[in-house]
Model the fold of this input.
Amino acid sequence: MSQKNWNLEPSLESAALLKLQDQYELFIDGKWQAPLSKKYFDSINPSDESKLAKIAWANEADTDVAVKAARTAYENVWSKLSGAQRGKYLFRIARLMQEQAKELAILETLDGGKPIRESRDVDIPLACNHFFYYAGWADKLQEAFAGQQISSLGVAAQITPWNFPLLMLAWKVAPALACGNTVVLKPAETTSLTALKFAEICQQAGLPAGVVNIVTGYGDTGAALVAHTDIDKIAFTGSTAVGKQIQKACLGTSKKLTLELGGKSANIILEDAPIDQAVEGVINAIFFNQGHVCCAGSRLYVQESIAAQVLAKLKFRLQSIYVGNPLDKNTDIGAINSKKQLETIERYIKLGIAEGGQIYQPTCELPSKGYYCKPTLFTDVAQSATIAQEEIFGPVLTIQTFRTMEEVIQKANNSPYGLAAGVWTDKGSRIFGLSQQLRAGVVWANTYNKFDPASPFGGYKESGFGREGGRHGLSAYLKFSN
Ligand code: NAP
Ligand code: MG
Done:
């Protein structure tokens, strides 16, 4: 049963193309501005713990300058442009991103640790497509909401996480600008570099000053932005805990809010499923991007009659997974985003063992420097086990079995989250039946982790509210007055 790991020659993407600065300032009002805080922090490459750049830390006073710039740009310039004019800027940004896609992909991989294959083939193309998609809507907003009176909101504060840095920026900035708003965006502290590169692209596109402002920093920068009294809209993607704090901070204000939060998504294999395809789908659902995916299929439910076969195939497949340097084109699983996140994942793995789970990890070797974690399977997991209930945000899969449809629906829905789910079966009727009953924002059938700018994304329950993407994504950035 055991298979030796592949022994492939390294195939490293060259980072020579990148023109990284030693130090990055804040991007406010179309210019690079030194922070009033006078403070900077380091961005680290998690694959080898080297320092990539020094980045400005924005305090409350800095966020205030950024919000004022966004307000002025909104009132004097952006809200006065026609949809077609806004669309032109968005198309220009999309094309510039596409032209610099390779540089963006390398930067995303260096700063965040994800395999170059993913940043090159998934993150960056999807981010470009979001700009193309919303550029197309900018002059058709009235058609999108026929018969309704719509207007832009004003200034949007946007806060993004570290798992899909540029893609989450695109999900937020593109619809906001298309609808006529200006933005102040705070990227996650460990992955600010592609947002700063995006600021350069806004300059190259000739975007009017103040329409996009990027304030880098820690959680307190985000909190200052949320608390600012001249913000009309907050779009947050991140953890449920911080999402709840933001919701509290908005109570009693007129700020419009969308929250895209955590998940613990169920992936269900029925006994009639094409098993090899399903196994490959499970691997993609949880080990893609080191499991740093809000909608990762982190709970696997397999029908009892095929459970032994699926488990054997999963273990066999894991033996050939390549964990290592994210810049290597062979790499399947790159670096964990930060030391802190690696510690969190390791704590959950220990807890899984302590709570009686059976662990399986392949025999691969991990690089000696950097933050890495082996892909991990847990069997003999109780539904109530912590690792089956809480979001781990790492490459850890719990596997449980079921006998009947009623049982699996109950188990899959027994979660505080409701972001996504996967169903593997040969029968269309079962797909429709299950997807109607699963309390999840997205249900993938015989596939997983497929995204498209035209399809809305968002969750139920503690996974948040509001939708990003598609026509639905526009309504989060518009005021409806009838
Ligand atoms: P996080 O800790 O909640 O941070 C998200 C962002 O919020 C970061 O920019 C963070 O800054 C900032 N922040 C922290 N405390 C804040 C506060 N009090 N007020 C305002 N902003 C604050 O989440 P994360 O660890 O970066 O990301 C992982 C989480 O995001 C997971 O739970 C995942 O499921 C979720 N996620 C959800 C989706 C979705 O679409 N539903 C997509 C991607 C990720 P710092 O970086 O400095 O902490
Ligand atoms: Mg980093």
Q: What stands out?
A: The chain has two domains: 23-261+463-481, 266-451.
